[in-house]
Amino acid sequence: MSYEIINPESLGAPKGWNNGMVAPAGGRVLFVAGQSARDASGRVMATTMTEQFAIVLDHILTVVHAAGGKAEHIGRLTIFVTDLAAYVASLKPIGEVYRKRMGRHYPAMALLEVTGLMDDNSMIEVEATAVLPPETTG
Question: Structure pTM?
Fold first, then answer.
């Protein structure tokens, strides 16, 4: 199962994302709630954007794997950050964290700067949508 990638020439070449992803027919849609870097006790202990991003991606992949999916089944990520400048300053290590977990699979993405997030000390939260093959089960 793979997505059909949609990148119209008129939008220019994307770097690190795709403009559109068409899911194959018959897939099961998984909506992953916004994930922060909180631990099992509900506390956010990581103090850098990169550390938090790594934990957040791990949480998302945990949900996807629990539903029977893989990283390449993720079709959309929406990233919320409280400090856009800190995110941009961390792009290189964040990219390394991303590729370690997601490989060269780049879903459609959006990045938004927000004034706050639900969990104390949280700098980043990410939600995802995945389309799983019809034969997968949780």
Answer: 0.88
